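Re: the 169-residue chain
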Amino acid sequence: MAVPGRGDVSALLDKGRRRRRRELSDEQKQEIREAFELFDTDKDLAIDYHELKSAMRALGFDVKKADVLRVLRDYDREGTGKITQADFTEVLTDWMLARDPREEMVKAFKLFDDDETGKVSLRNLRRVARELGENMSDEELRAMIEEFDTDGDGEIHIDDFMAIMMGDT
């Protein structure tokens, strides 16, 4: 057996680091587990087409019929029309790891920017706070905007929002 050269060891270490970085957080793993349990309505530890589609959408994936059918075709080894929790976890782990963080942040920004102005105003922030059941005064909301408003126009632009989400503020 050949002894790996210095470059081979570095490659192995880099691969190990990459693998660790490519793991879901415990919170994400829990979200997948909870989604499966919630949508496994008959509690048979497997989910069918409708349950699978609902669970995937609950986890934030905009899946089409063809996507769900492809997952079922690829993972339904017994031909039951269902996939197991282990298979569901494998599929959703891969999908979550493949998400583009910037794209996800843009989607989140659009939830705030419901009037599609390209910025989050006091009115937008007030609406989101109300929808989340947060009882915040306009003064508190203005203070939030002022903290992250880089150009002083009283609104949060997409770049400001990205900086907030990336922790660059």
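The chain is about 65% helix and 5% strand.
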